[in-house]
């Protein structure tokens, strides 16, 4: 299986998870606690789908061109913002949910996952200037925007995106296990 086929497969998996959790979210008779859990899962699924879709775009675009860096810029923005949400809210909420339901092994798994990817997650912070001036906010200094986009190192960015995708996939798997125990 070549890289294009692998990414298409991962994107299809992400799409199926996203649509599945979205449908669960709109079922009747779900408790408010289960809805809270499903909202965490749908956001993780949205991000995973966006990352996989962006990686597919990247693989399908010409190598060594500015357009690839623009695709990377969008992906970097997604993970930059989602990492903040995870760090400031979702991880703690999921840990609290595990604790309230006596899911000690799942809480340990989340701690292990967070520690395993801590270094990779920290690398996302280095994109603050890119995020502030070229992704979420378009600075009026277009030359600065272009320069920041040009400065994106494709190999390093891809490694970071893949690491984040693996981390988020672990979060989704954890959410699936906790959901089955609800």
Helical content class: over 70%
Number of helices: 8
Rounded Rg:
18 Å
Mean pLDDT: 89
Report the span from N to C terminus.
37 Å
So what's the overall shape? globular
What fraction of residues sit in β-strands? under 5%
Number of strands: 0
Return the structural class. mainly alpha
Subunit organisation of the chains: single chain
Low-confidence stretches: none
Instruction: Note the main sheet.
Output: none
Order of helices and strands: HHHHHHHH
SSE order and pairing:
Elements: H1 3-25, H2 32-60, H3 66-100, H4 104-116, H5 118-123, H6 128-135, H7 142-150, H8 154-181
Characterization of this structure:
This protein has 182 residues and is mainly α. 83% of the residues lie in helices and 0% in strands. The chain has helices spanning 3-25, 32-60, 66-100, 104-116, 118-123, 128-135, 142-150, 154-181. The model has no long low-confidence stretch (mean pLDDT 89).
């Amino acid at each position: 299986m070549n890289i294009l086929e692998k990414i298409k497969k991962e994107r299809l998996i992400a799409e199926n998870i996203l649509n599945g959790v979205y449908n669960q979210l709109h079922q009747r008779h779900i408790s408010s606690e289960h809805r809270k859990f499903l909202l965490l899962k749908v956001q993780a699924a949205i991000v995973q789908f966006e990352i996989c879709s962006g990686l597919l775009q990247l693989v399908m675009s010409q190598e060594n061109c500015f357009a690839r860096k623009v695709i990377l810029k969008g992906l970097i923005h997604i993970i930059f913002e989602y990492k903040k949400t995870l760090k400031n809210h979702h991880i703690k909420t999921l840990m609290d949910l595990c604790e309230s339901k006596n899911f000690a092994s799942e809480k340990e798994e989340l701690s292990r996952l967070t520690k395993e990817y801590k270094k990779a997650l920290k690398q996302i912070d280095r994109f603050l200037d890119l995020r502030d001036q070229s992704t979420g906010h378009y600075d009026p200094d277009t030359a600065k925007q272009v320069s920041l986009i040009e400065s994106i190192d494709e190999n390093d960015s891809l490694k970071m995106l893949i690491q984040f995708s693996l981390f988020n996939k672990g979060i989704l798997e954890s959410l699936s296990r906790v959901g089955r125990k609800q």
